[in-house]
């Protein structure tokens, strides 16, 4: 538990990333790293590669304006600013890239009870329980903020729902958040470079990590309407393909149990 809830080490993070474009700022507490970084961009006070990470968030943001709070130092909570070198209509792939990089990082640092998977579009699952979530927001035609929250050292009693889990619960008992953050940013850079180069293989790689593709799902649209469908793939824009043809770009997806 001491390693899991050790304070973030700014010097170690800087040393690990000093030859990259990432610039990491660590704060003890804030409302939301995502909200703060978006505001900095709009005020002209941020650029590509800025990362804001906090030991505690009092008003963390998730998809569909959901909120969450984790005990101090029990989660890794950060947001980063990137300037994608691809057309805006392809940016739907960015949260998928962020998720791929997250699973790759977890696999390198943790020995888990089972493999982590991707639930379209923004969740990381272990044993069908959410261990991490992502939020991608277009701030301008040149800027995107990606926010990530990972349950690292939370106990079962600290989790907000029985449908959530943490890395420690799933067997990763020595995960250092400073090392995780540094490796994640390096890994995301590699995925971003491949995506900007137009590597088509990313689609197949995503599909292999996905626990959504190939199963029955329930989709709740922004207007609250719910429908059932079969997830069959991901297209080049990052949209979910359902029933072999229809594209879904936004919505809340739930996995349905097999009969």
Oligomer: single chain
User: From the 3D coordinates, which CATH architecture of the largest domain would you assign?
Assistant: 2-Layer Sandwich
Structural class: alpha+beta
Could you spell the SSE succession in H and E letters?
Answer: HEHEEEEHEEEEHHEEEEE
CATH class of the largest domain: Alpha Beta
Shape: globular
CATH superfamily of the largest domain: Bira Bifunctional Protein, Domain 2
**DSSP helical segment count:** 5
Largest sheet: spatial strand order? 1-2-5-9-8-7-6
What is the domain total for the residues? 2
- Fraction in beta strands: 25-35%
The total of beta strands comes to 14
Radius of gyration: 17 Å
What distance lies between the first and last C-alpha atoms, to the nearest angstrom?
39 Å
Low-confidence stretches are none
Summary of the model, kept short:
The chain is α+β, with helices and mostly antiparallel strands.
Give a description of the structure.
With 259 residues, this protein is of the alpha+beta class. The protein has two domains: 10-204, BirA Bifunctional Protein, domain 2; 213-255, SH3 type barrels, CATH 2.30.30. The chain is 24% helix and 31% strand. It has five helices and 14 strands. The N and C termini lie far apart (39 Å). The relative contact order is 0.16. GO terms for molecular function: biotin--[biotin carboxyl-carrier protein] ligase activity.
Blueprint of the fold:
Elements: H1 10-17, E1 23-30, H2 33-42, E2 50-57, E3 60-61, E4 67-68, E5 75-82, H3 94-109, E6 117-119, E7 123-126, E8 129-140, E9 143-151, H4 177-196, H5 201-209, E10 216-220, E11 226-234, E12 240-242, E13 246-248, E14 252-255
Parallel strand pairs: 1-2
Antiparallel strand pairs: 2-5, 3-4, 5-9, 6-7, 7-8, 8-9, 10-11, 10-14, 11-12, 12-13
Helix pairs in contact: 1-4, 3-4, 3-5
């Amino acid at each position: 538990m001491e390693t899991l809830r050790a304070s973030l080490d700014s010097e170690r993070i800087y040393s690990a990333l000093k030859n990259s474009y990432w610039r990491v700022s660590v704060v003890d507490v804030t409302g939301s790293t995502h909200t703060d970084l978006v505001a900095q961009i709009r005020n002209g006070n941020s650029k590509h590669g800025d990362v804001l990470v906090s030991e505690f968030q009092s008003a963390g943001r998730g998809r569909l304006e959901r909120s969450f709070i984790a005990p101090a130092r029990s989660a890794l909570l950060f947001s980063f600013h990137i300037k994608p070198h691809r057309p805006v209509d392809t940016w739907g792939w960015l949260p998928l890239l962020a998720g791929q990089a997250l699973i790759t990082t977890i696999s390198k640092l943790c020995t888990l009870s089972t493999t982590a998977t991707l639930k379209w579009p923004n969740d990381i699952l272990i044993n069908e329980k959410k261990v991490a979530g992502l939020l991608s927001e277009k701030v301008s035609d040149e800027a995107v903020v990606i926010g990530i929250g990972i349950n690292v050292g939370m106990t079962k009693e600290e989790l907000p729902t029985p449908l959530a889990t943490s890395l420690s619960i799933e067997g990763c008992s020595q995960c250092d958040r400073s090392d995780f953050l540094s490796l994640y940013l390096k890994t995301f850079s590699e995925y971003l470079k491949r995506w900007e180069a137009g590597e088509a293989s990313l689609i197949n790689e995503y599909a292999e990590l996905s626990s959504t593709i190939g199963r029955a799902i329930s989709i709740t649209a922004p207007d609250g309407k719910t429908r059932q469908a079969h997830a069959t793939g991901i297209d080049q824009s990052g949209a979910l393909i359902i029933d072999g043809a229809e594209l879904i770009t936004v919505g809340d997806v739930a996995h349905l149990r097999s009969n």
